[in-house]
Amino acid sequence: MISLKGISKTFKTKNGAVQAVDNVNLEIEAGQIFGIIGYSGAGKSTLIRLLNLLEKPTEGSVKIDGKALSSLTPSKLRAARQEIGMIFQHFNLLWSRTVRQNISFPLEVAGVPAAQRKKRVEELIELVGLHGRGDSYPSQLSGGQKQRVGIARALANNPKVLLCDEATSALDPKTTDSILDLLLDINEKLNLTIVLITHEMHVIQKICHQVAVMENGKIVEQGPVIDVFRKP
Ligand code: ADP
Ligand code: ADP
């Protein structure tokens, strides 16, 4: 589903160069929940931005669904981007729009006709458990409800992959568990591939099948969660 080969990303700064990602190889299979864990500064955000096609690698190749991204024309790259949904630590909702309008937004951008949009938005509201909240504004919602809106919006265009950038780090433990349960539920129901980055071991242990441990831009260990984090 996603394959990274020899990926490096260097940023030029006033004081020289920073190698945020250093020769990373990853194979993420369709239907998996794949976790990337590491301390702050390890390179996780840069890696997820490379997966989201927001950054270009300095070296190496990214393949999604067998297609090398470097070979795509701009219009094919836009189409590839639509196959990737993303959710964020601080939700990134449109604050002046209702839940329905937030979820509808990516459908509008994709040019989906109004009648179809309306139907899809109601499906998504049910899927993420926001029944009765469609006309609320983000400021009227709890953190967990805001992240449900984020998830619904990310899924609107039926992506093949959902990227989660510290998606539960702003939530309390109980709300974190309810969002993780929702991610498990959609992984099973939709056979959606999920890639998440986190600094919380609990998140990895609760829902991930595979994990990669990142340190100083490098993957220092990877494999099934039960093997990597086996208790001695
Ligand atoms: P994490 O998400 O694990 O905290 P990041 O990917 O944000 O790690 O950062 C990895 C390293 O790359 C850090 O040293 C960070 O300062 C540096 N870095 C990230 N983005 C940039 C950028 N746009 N310009 C310069 N340095 C950056
Ligand atoms: P947190 O998860 O830390 O509580 P929020 O999700 O509330 O953060 O905020 C995320 C971003 O959206 C912040 O940059 C914040 O300034 C902005 N923001 C939050 N509430 C509103 C609002 N009602 N109107 C406009 N921007 C807002």
From TrEMBL:
Q: Supply the name of the protein.
A: Methionine ABC transporter ATP-binding protein
Domain ABC transporter per the UniProt entry, residue ranges: 2-232
Alphabetically ordered keywords of this record: Amino-acid transport, ATP-binding, Cell membrane, Membrane, Nucleotide-binding, Translocase, Transport
Please give the range of the full-length protein represented by this chain: 1 to 232 of 342
Keyword Aminoacyl-tRNA synthetase attached: no
Q: Which GO terms describe its molecular function?
A: ATP binding
